[in-house]
Structure formats: C-alpha cells, structure tokens
Design brief:
Blueprint: H1 4-9, H2 11-24, H3 28-52, H4 59-93, H5 99-102, H6 105-130, E1 133-142, E2 151-157, H7 170-180, E3 185-188, H8 201-208, E4 217-219, H9 231-237, E5 241-242, E6 246-250, E7 254-259, H10 270-273, E8 283-287, H11 293-297, E9 303-306, H12 317-320, H13 322-325, E10 331-335, E11 338-342, E12 359-368
Parallel strand pairs: 1-12, 2-3, 3-4, 4-5, 7-8, 8-9, 9-11
Antiparallel strand pairs: 2-12, 6-7, 10-11
Length: about 375
C-alpha cells in the first residue's frame, strides 16, 4: 500500500513524538487515553485506504474521510515535536531561558499546545489550499514548421483523483474556470479517477462535457488508469478523445500525442510513438509522469505537459524527495529544443491536504514562430 513503507520507516520518530507529548499530559489516565488515540491516528490512513476500495456509507464513510486527515496530522505532530524540542535545546544552550522557566507548568502547557494545535492549524490550511483552484500561466515560443496556426491557447489539467470524498462541485468549478479562459484546446494529463464505485460518476461525466474548446478535449492515461476498468469509456462519455500511445493530427496546425506511463506497461520509446507524425507540424506530448526528459528533449517533441508529482503535496516531501526523484517536479524547464511543464494537479491524492504546491489549472499561451 502506497505510503505504508514511509510510515514504517519513520515509526521511530513517530514513537518519539508520542513519548514527548505524553510526558506533558497530566494524569496517568489521560496519558493512556492519548496513547490509544495516537495509535488510532497511526492506523487511520491505512484504514482509510482499505475502506476507499469498498462500498462505504454512513459512519464508515466518516471514518474513511477522518482517516485520510490522520496522515498529515501525524506528520506535522512529529515535525512540531522535533522542531520545538530543537528550539528548546538551543535556548537552553544560549541561556535565553532558565531551566525553571522551561520546566514550569505554563511553559509545559504552551509546549503541549504547540505539539497538538499547531499541526491541526497546518492541516486546516492545507485542506483550504487543496480546495483553492487557481490558474498558472506560462508562455512559450515553438517552431511553427508548416502550421496554419500562429498562436495557440492550451489549457492543461491533471490529477483530479475523483473519488467518494470529492466535492460534488469540483468538476463544475473546474469547467467554469476552463471555459472562462476560452482555450483553443484542452488537454487532460491522466489520473482523473481514483478508487472504485464513485457514486456521482455520471454527474462528473456530464460536467466534463460542458467544456468548450475550438479543437476539443484530449486526454492521456495516468498511472491510476491502470487500477480499474472502464477508464477509456469514462473519458469517451466525458467528451474526451483518449490517446493511449497515439498521435492525433489537429487540423493543419499541430500534433497531439498521448503516452502511456508507468512501469507496466513501460513507456514506449518516444521515436516509436512519433513514427506516424511527419516532421511538418509542431508536436505537443501529454505524458502523465515526467520521467523521460532526456530522450524527449532529443526527439521531435516541442512541448511536453505532465502531472503526477503533485509537487510533493505535503511539506517537506517537496524538499526532501522531489528534487531527487524528478528532474522537474513542478514548473517549466527548457531542455534541448523542448519545453517541459509539470503541473501540481487539480486536487490532492489520498489526504485532501496540500501544504506544498497548490491546486491548479495550467494555461499555456503558445506562439508559433
């Protein structure tokens, strides 16, 4: 199960945080109650993941939603304990505070509040940030070759992760924002669906069909498209052209290619994917995962649009993991003759909390030279 390995690896720090918080709670009964709650907090996320793949209603749905919030709250309790303890160690070494002040009842209550309340505020802010859908704009100049177009306005979005806990208005708000941008084409970068048995799937499909664009809507699969059947039918019913290792010529203006991502099946070599795209028009590639930048930069691709990374989603993952796992985890980079743009996604995966990056729609203004 995804992230379970991380929970196990960081369990010593998690246990340390539990011990530190417990010492500040007065009374053995309250301390034992806290430990029980802390254990439930630890297992909240795996329980939520198990329930997400089953039919959940009533109180089980509430448990599932609460379980997803447990993971970020546990993360920030652990970080808060570590940060506050290091801070206290420093002020003691620098003689800023006396030992009796640090051991006083008032100071202990302040520390306890810092350990438990500060993480809750961070999670609350992250949930608000996840629900705040913004537009991120980029401008690029691409070779026009023999294209009939001079300019192109692209809207790109990925990583909706629609599930049982998704707001009924998410897709509606997304479509409204997209149409307000008056795009020439809308490209969807995969991982639209998450989980099984989404109750309002038909409503999501209806809302997606409300997108208006001159050249239509095209989509490529993400890694989560492998986890359930009927994904291609969903895209078709949503009014999208689904591209699985396919290239589509858009009028006499440009090519759009959609690349299958993931380990199984592995990515098709970019040269094989573009074999049916003559060198007469610009090529725009949708590749859910930005893991093949070197070979793409040497190919005929002029612009690649990706998602998948969520820009780490939870601080400090964006600082500790993303730079080592991806050459480009978020934003835009030019490599060779190709421009790469990576989005942080429309919505978070798993816990509906974003403390790194935001929820965004990407608008790319293209000028063909």
């Amino acid at each position: 199960m995804y992230l379970m390995t991380e929970l196990v690896l960081f369990s010593p720090l998690i246990v340390y945080a539990c011990i530190r918080v417990r010492k500040l709670i007065p009374g053995t009964g309250r301390q034992n109650t806290f430990v029980i709650c802390y254990i439930l907090l630890f297992f909240g996320y795996p329980i939520a993941e198990l329930l997400a793949h089953r039919e959940t209603t009533g109180w089980m749905r509430t448990v599932m939603i609460a379980g997803y919030y447990c993971l970020p709250y546990l993360l920030y309790i652990t970080l808060s304990v570590a940060a506050i303890d290091i801070g206290i160690l420093l002020v003691r070494r620098l003689n800023i505070l006396r030992a009796d002040t640090i051991s006083s009842g008032v100071f202990r209550h302040v520390r306890l509040g810092g350990y438990l309340i500060l993480p809750a505020l961070v999670v609350f802010a992250g949930a608000w940030n996840n629900n705040r859908l913004t537009v991120k704009e980029y401008s690029v100049k691409l070779p026009g070759y023999s294209s009939a177009a001079k300019e192109l306005k692209i809207v790109f979005a990925s990583d909706f992760h629609l599930s049982r806990i998704t707001s009924d208005r998410l897709v509606e708000r997304f479509v409204q924002k997209v149409n307000a941008l008056h795009p020439d084409i809308v490209l969807i970068g995969g991982d639209v669906l998450e989980g099984h048995g989404i109750e309002n799937l038909a409503e999501f499909e209806k809302q997606f069909r409300g997108i208006t664009a001159k050249y239509g809507v095209y989509a490529a699969p993400g890694n989560h498209e492998r986890y359930g059947g009927g994904r291609e039918d969903f895209y078709r019913r949503s009014g999208m052209k689904f591209l699985e290792d396919q290239v589509e010529k858009i009028g006499d203006a440009f090519y759009v290619a959609g690349r299958i991502t993931g380990r199984v099946p592995r990515k098709k070599p970019i040269e094989d994917l573009l074999v049916d795209a003559p060198e007469d028009l610009p090529v725009i590639l949708i590749d859910h995962s930005p893991t093949d930048l070197e070979s793409v930069s040497r190919s005929r691709v002029d612009l690649q649009l990706s998602g998948h990374t969520h820009n780490g989603q939870l601080f400090p993952v964006n600082l500790l993991v993303m730079p080592f796992e991806y050459e480009l985890a978020w934003g835009m980079k030019t490599k060779g003759n190709c421009h790469f743009i990576v989005s942080s996604g429309v919505q978070a995966w798993g816990p509906p909390v974003k403390t790194a990056g935001g929820s965004e729609i990407v608008l790319v203004s293209v000028v063909f030279q």
